[in-house]
Amino acid sequence: MEITKEEVSRMIKEAIEQDRKKRLDESVNQIVDASDIDSPAYNTSRLFNGVRTEYKRKIMSLFHTRNYEYLGPHDEELNFNAYCIMDSIRELVLIGFNAKSNNGIPINRRREAQEHYKKIAEEVYQMLKKTFE
User: What is the pTM assigned to this prediction?
Assistant: First the structure.
């Protein structure tokens, strides 16, 4: 059975239209889902931001109320500060998921990673609080 030139042309146009629609739908979904943690388009650099900010603030407040020295003589941050603590917690979580960065955490385990991060941050905060009492 032979296919005419017109039929081939029509089949090609249909395939192009289907591909164009599929790519457009995918790009729209990526834009819409960029803030959805379960989406492949999620910005993983934001994975721990909320908890990180909350506990960084709590730890800094604890440092201030206890007159803990986290700044050097020239107002440089010493090695042990709130940022360092929170980054260390992130590293621990990444090790637990065998990931080099937030992006390496599997999509279906992102919420679990957030929970681990929060639990460890709370434990560290409570430990610091007891230490400074």
Answer: 0.69
